[in-house]
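Before relying on records like the one below, remember that each one covers exactly one chain. Contacts with other chains, cofactors or solvent are not represented anywhere in the record.
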Amino acid sequence: MRHLFSLISIVFTIAIVGMAQNTTRPNLEPEITTAGQPTEFTDSLIVDSSLISISGYDKPLRATKETFFVSNKYACDITAISITFNYYDMQGRQLHAVTQEITQEIPSGETRQLYIPSWDKQQAFYYYLSPQPRRSATPYKVEYRINYVRLRQHP
Protein backbone atom coordinates (compact mmCIF):
# COMPACT_ATOMS: atom_id res chain seq x y z
CA MET A 1 0.00 0.00 0.00
CA ARG A 2 2.86 2.30 0.85
CA HIS A 3 4.43 1.65 -2.56
CA LEU A 4 1.16 2.38 -4.30
CA PHE A 5 0.90 5.74 -2.51
CA SER A 6 4.53 6.56 -3.48
CA LEU A 7 3.86 5.60 -7.10
CA ILE A 8 0.72 7.75 -7.24
CA SER A 9 2.65 10.66 -5.70
CA ILE A 10 5.42 10.34 -8.29
CA VAL A 11 2.97 10.18 -11.21
CA PHE A 12 1.06 13.20 -9.84
CA THR A 13 4.33 15.18 -9.42
CA ILE A 14 5.45 14.35 -12.97
CA ALA A 15 2.05 15.41 -14.33
CA ILE A 16 2.23 18.78 -12.56
CA VAL A 17 5.85 19.45 -13.59
CA GLY A 18 5.14 18.36 -17.18
CA MET A 19 2.26 20.83 -17.69
CA ALA A 20 2.92 23.36 -20.46
CA GLN A 21 4.35 26.64 -19.36
CA ASN A 22 3.64 29.88 -21.18
CA THR A 23 7.09 31.23 -22.09
CA THR A 24 5.86 33.99 -24.42
CA ARG A 25 6.66 37.50 -23.35
CA PRO A 26 3.53 39.41 -22.37
CA ASN A 27 2.02 42.21 -24.48
CA LEU A 28 3.47 41.04 -27.81
CA GLU A 29 1.50 41.95 -30.91
CA PRO A 30 1.77 40.03 -34.18
CA GLU A 31 3.44 41.90 -37.06
CA ILE A 32 1.01 42.24 -39.95
CA THR A 33 2.26 43.20 -43.40
CA THR A 34 0.30 43.86 -46.53
CA ALA A 35 1.90 43.82 -49.96
CA GLY A 36 2.17 47.31 -51.39
CA GLN A 37 1.15 49.05 -48.17
CA PRO A 38 4.26 49.76 -46.08
CA THR A 39 3.70 50.78 -42.51
CA GLU A 40 6.15 52.31 -40.08
CA PHE A 41 8.77 49.88 -38.69
CA THR A 42 7.27 47.01 -40.71
CA ASP A 43 8.69 45.07 -43.62
CA SER A 44 6.60 45.01 -46.78
CA LEU A 45 6.75 43.25 -50.09
CA ILE A 46 7.11 45.72 -52.94
CA VAL A 47 7.62 45.18 -56.67
CA ASP A 48 9.00 48.25 -58.47
CA SER A 49 12.08 47.39 -60.49
CA SER A 50 12.56 51.03 -61.54
CA LEU A 51 13.83 51.79 -58.02
CA ILE A 52 16.39 49.02 -57.91
CA SER A 53 19.19 48.11 -60.30
CA ILE A 54 21.42 45.10 -60.70
CA SER A 55 24.80 45.46 -62.39
CA GLY A 56 28.29 43.98 -62.57
CA TYR A 57 27.28 40.32 -62.75
CA ASP A 58 30.31 38.02 -62.82
CA LYS A 59 31.04 34.28 -62.67
CA PRO A 60 34.48 33.12 -63.86
CA LEU A 61 34.96 29.49 -64.86
CA ARG A 62 36.13 28.08 -61.51
CA ALA A 63 33.99 30.33 -59.29
CA THR A 64 31.66 28.72 -56.78
CA LYS A 65 29.69 31.95 -56.38
CA GLU A 66 28.03 34.39 -58.76
CA THR A 67 28.50 38.04 -57.77
CA PHE A 68 26.62 41.19 -58.73
CA PHE A 69 25.81 44.64 -57.38
CA VAL A 70 22.38 45.82 -56.22
CA SER A 71 21.68 49.57 -56.01
CA ASN A 72 18.80 50.73 -53.82
CA LYS A 73 16.95 53.81 -55.15
CA TYR A 74 14.06 53.44 -52.69
CA ALA A 75 13.54 55.94 -49.88
CA CYS A 76 13.61 52.91 -47.52
CA ASP A 77 16.24 50.33 -46.66
CA ILE A 78 16.08 46.98 -48.45
CA THR A 79 16.20 43.98 -46.10
CA ALA A 80 15.80 41.20 -48.70
CA ILE A 81 15.47 40.70 -52.43
CA SER A 82 14.13 37.81 -54.52
CA ILE A 83 15.60 37.36 -57.99
CA THR A 84 15.01 34.76 -60.68
CA PHE A 85 18.07 34.07 -62.85
CA ASN A 86 17.74 32.43 -66.28
CA TYR A 87 20.93 31.08 -67.87
CA TYR A 88 21.29 30.68 -71.66
CA ASP A 89 23.97 29.41 -74.00
CA MET A 90 25.19 31.75 -76.74
CA GLN A 91 22.52 30.41 -79.13
CA GLY A 92 19.74 31.41 -76.70
CA ARG A 93 18.90 27.91 -75.41
CA GLN A 94 18.06 27.82 -71.73
CA LEU A 95 20.61 25.99 -69.59
CA HIS A 96 19.16 26.53 -66.13
CA ALA A 97 16.91 28.77 -64.02
CA VAL A 98 16.92 29.48 -60.30
CA THR A 99 15.09 31.79 -57.89
CA GLN A 100 17.04 33.10 -54.92
CA GLU A 101 15.92 35.15 -51.94
CA ILE A 102 18.89 37.03 -50.53
CA THR A 103 18.66 38.59 -47.08
CA GLN A 104 20.88 41.66 -47.10
CA GLU A 105 20.63 45.17 -45.68
CA ILE A 106 21.02 47.74 -48.46
CA PRO A 107 20.52 51.26 -47.09
CA SER A 108 18.55 53.76 -49.12
CA GLY A 109 20.65 55.30 -51.91
CA GLU A 110 23.49 52.79 -51.51
CA THR A 111 24.90 49.78 -53.40
CA ARG A 112 26.01 46.39 -52.07
CA GLN A 113 27.79 43.47 -53.68
CA LEU A 114 25.71 40.31 -53.32
CA TYR A 115 26.44 36.72 -54.20
CA ILE A 116 24.60 33.46 -54.69
CA PRO A 117 25.91 29.89 -54.99
CA SER A 118 26.83 29.09 -58.59
CA TRP A 119 24.45 26.95 -60.61
CA ASP A 120 27.51 25.53 -62.43
CA LYS A 121 28.54 22.77 -60.00
CA GLN A 122 30.91 21.13 -62.50
CA GLN A 123 32.68 24.43 -63.27
CA ALA A 124 32.26 23.97 -67.02
CA PHE A 125 30.67 27.36 -67.81
CA TYR A 126 31.77 30.99 -67.52
CA TYR A 127 29.84 34.24 -67.94
CA TYR A 128 30.60 35.52 -71.44
CA LEU A 129 31.75 38.95 -70.17
CA SER A 130 34.11 37.39 -67.60
CA PRO A 131 37.74 36.79 -68.65
CA GLN A 132 37.92 33.92 -71.11
CA PRO A 133 39.59 30.93 -69.43
CA ARG A 134 42.68 29.21 -70.85
CA ARG A 135 41.03 25.81 -70.91
CA SER A 136 38.02 24.90 -73.02
CA ALA A 137 34.77 26.06 -71.42
CA THR A 138 31.30 27.14 -72.49
CA PRO A 139 30.26 30.80 -72.26
CA TYR A 140 26.72 31.69 -71.17
CA LYS A 141 24.48 34.72 -70.78
CA VAL A 142 22.19 35.47 -67.87
CA GLU A 143 18.90 37.33 -67.56
CA TYR A 144 17.27 38.23 -64.27
CA ARG A 145 13.85 39.23 -63.01
CA ILE A 146 13.31 40.91 -59.65
CA ASN A 147 10.35 39.18 -58.01
CA TYR A 148 10.16 41.44 -54.96
CA VAL A 149 12.16 43.42 -52.48
CA ARG A 150 11.45 43.63 -48.79
CA LEU A 151 11.65 47.17 -47.44
CA ARG A 152 11.95 48.68 -43.99
CA GLN A 153 10.39 52.06 -43.42
CA HIS A 154 12.47 54.69 -41.66
CA PRO A 155 11.06 55.94 -38.34
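The longest strand covers residues 138-152.
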